[in-house]
Specification:
heterodimer; A: mainly alpha; ABC transporter involved in vitamin B12 uptake, BtuC; two-stranded antiparallel sheet; B: mainly alpha; globular
Chain lengths: 319, 303
């Protein structure tokens, strides 16, 4: 009950946010919150693998970046009119492009997952990181799509007849995607599949003994997780009308992990809270000093050493 | 032919550098079960301390102990303050805490030295080339290869022939049993961590004159080191040695030879772009291949 009330208050606050920011005379805060929601979406996608599947992936920046590049490349081809590889026409419609981005990042997750899931523990962490780095270098070498400079999109993708150039409109579109994504997460994780995944996290050998193909369950979870990250990347590309190679940098993977743990991995809204907390903290520290990372780093260490469970479990019982 | 031999030597040089880093990483994992993302930061600390000492004193000989001491002391302090509390935690906590350490180290270095890279002169005695009969080769790189191989040999002797090495090997397989027999395993952990940091700092100070000393140099090589450790098998020092050489050779020869090979098949600019892409991805593809055949790496350790 308390959770329900907290969620309702949070949602109401988000719905009213563009008006509040406008009244405060700081419209830049609208885009900041859009960013937070997008990273929250990415973190909650990672959390399917991390919190529910127990798969510590340090390579989700790759799927996030692939989603962004997919949408950037598709939009570029739509505007220039030349088909991609001489075959596929581009599109500048958001719904089409989001599906493309999720499909492409899902395929990447399927390939990387099939290889990486042959290992576990520390090796899994290192291998997901290494694959993400490989994809980073691939896009660095793709001079046709900007390479080092990133890829600029001339305009945001269209959605029905909405004026997507308006930041408040884009805020609500992002909020809509976030809510749909969270609803899908909740549906998936409360299904039979979600129970299997939780069982594997707690005791993989036992699940194998009762006849579950644990590799397949983990693999599917990893793919769903990658698709969610791709969706977030697609939205991020649209927000700034720019695909930066930085999206794929391995520190992005690290930040997504922090968001999950800070907010509470293993809960559905936790990672979104974590994204808001971390980015709020970064923005605040940034107003004090440009060397805010020198403060954030030790804070992070203290957080890990001092407490476990995350923001979403505050006031709730421990599970 | 001489070009190939020269590139092989370059690969060997990268390989021994990678081994110096991988040895520390794999030892720390073997004994303490900790994944340490901040290992690259110790490499950076070694490089910066040496570059700073070289600038102050003008002597590369004095820079060597400065770099080694800075890296080893930083490593032991990090172990004492942070890593020690992470032994019993899961890998996720270890990743997060050491990620925090990276942010701290990178930003502190920026505060102290600024964002501009530092450049270190090759010591004058080693700045020339040595005639190897077929071709001349830079003396400094040759010196790195020799120093790296000597360190590898010393490390093997230390681990296989001394009492400390015996405790390290025993601690890696039966941590509780060693503790029950009255060995101070916490002190042992600090020493091993310091040793790993020392080797990383050694790699860092030797890399100084070849690369520019800058923030972020640690992470670049750290990820390559991860590839080495995974290919070699976690926890195995011998595996780290052979796979470091393999990765060094593969990386260097792809970068050296692929552009020419591709240029024979397509237009120059396209060939260069494709070659740089493939050669940057090469070692990761190698890792994927090894994992397909042997998921535990080439020389699986006990873990």
């Amino acid at each position: 009950m308390r959770k329900l009330i907290a969620s309702a208050i949070g949602l109401a606050l988000l719905l009213a946010w563009p008006f509040i920011a406008e009244k405060m005379g700081a419209p830049a805060l609208i885009s900041l919150f859009t960013r937070m929601m997008i990273l929250g979406l990415a973190a909650s996608a990672l959390n399917i693998a991390l919190g529910f599947g127990g798969l510590v992936s340090l390579g989700h920046a790759a799927f996030y970046g692939i989603g962004a590049y997919a949408i950037g490349i598709s939009t570029t081809h739509a505007i220039s009119g030349l088909p991609f590889l001489g075959l596929l026409p581009g599109s500048d419609q958001l719904l089409v492009n989001v599906l493309v981005a999720m499909l492409v990042s899902g395929c990447a997750a399927a390939i990387i997952g099939a290889l990486a899931l042959r290992t576990s523990g520390i090796q899994f962490i290192m291998i997901t990181l290494a694959f993400a780095q490989m994809i980073f270098f691939l896009f660095l070498a793709l001079k046709a799509y900007g390479g080092d400079d990133g890829l600029t999109m001339r305009r945001r993708n269209g959605l029905f007849d909405l004026n997507m150039r308006d930041d408040a409109t884009f805020f609500y579109v992002t909020l809509g995607f976030l809510l749909v994504w969270l609803a899908i997460c909740a549906r998936v994780l409360h299904s039979r599949f979600g129970l299997l995944l939780g069982g594997i996290r707690q005791n993989e050998r036992r699940m194998q003994a009762v006849g579950v193909n644990t590799f397949r369950v983990k693999w599917i979870a990893f793919i769903i997780s990658g698709m969610g990250a791709g969706l977030a990347g697609a939205l991020m590309a649209n927000l700034g009308r720019f695909v930066s190679l930085d999206l794929m940098h391995w520190t992005t993977s690290g930040e997504l992990l922090i968001m999950c743990v800070l907010g509470g991995s293993g809960t559905i809204v936790g990672p979104v809270l974590g994204a808001f907390a971390l980015m709020g903290l970064e923005a605040t520290l940034n107003t004090w000093t440009e060397h805010w990372q020198a403060i954030l780093g030790p804070l992070l260490v203290l957080m890990v050493l001092a407490f476990k469970g995350g923001l979403a479990r505050i006031g709730g019982r421990k599970s | 032919m001489t070009l190939i031999l020269e590139q092989l030597l370059n690969g060997l040089q990268l390989g021994v550098m990678l081994f110096l880093l991988a040895a520390g990483l794999t030892l720390v994992f073997g004994i303490m079960g900790v994944i340490n993302l901040a290992h690259g930061s110790l490499y950076m600390v070694g490089a910066y301390a040496a570059a700073f000492a070289a600038k102050l004193t003008g002597s590369f000989l004095l820079a060597i102990p400065a770099g080694l001491a800075a890296a080893a002391l930083t490593g032991m302090a990090v172990e004492y303050l942070v890593i020690r509390h992470l032994y019993a935690r899961d890998h996720l906590d270890q990743v997060l805490a050491t990620f925090g350490l990276i942010l701290f180290f990178n930003q502190t270095i920026i505060l102290l030295f600024g964002r501009q890279p530092l450049f270190v002169q090759i010591p004058p005695a080693l700045s020339g080339a040595v005639d190897l009969g077929l071709f001349p080769y830079p003396a400094y790189r040759l010196c790195i290869i020799a120093a790296g191989l000597l360190s590898a040999g010393a490390l093997f002797l230390l681990i296989q022939r001394t009492r400390l090495g015996m405790l390290v090997r025993a601690g890696a397989t039966h941590r509780e049993m060693v503790q029950a027999l009255g060995v101070d395993i916490r002190l042992l952990s600090t020493i091993v961590f310091g040793l790993g940091a020392l080797l990383a700092g050694f790699a860092g100070l030797m890399a100084g004159p070849l690369l520019s000393v800058q923030v972020g140099m640690g992470e670049q090589i750290l990820i390559l080191t991860f590839v080495v450790v995974v290919i070699g098998g976690l926890g195995s020092v011998a595996g780290a040695f052979w796979s470091a050489l393999l990765v060094g050779l593969v990386d260097t020869s792809l970068r050296a030879f692929l552009p020419q090979i591709l240029r024979g098949m397509m237009a120059g600019s396209e060939a260069d772009a494709l070659a740089s892409g493939i050669s940057a991805m090469g070692v990761y593809l190698l890792m994927a291949l090894v994992l397909l055949i042997k998921p535990k790496g080439l020389f699986p350790g006990h873990a």
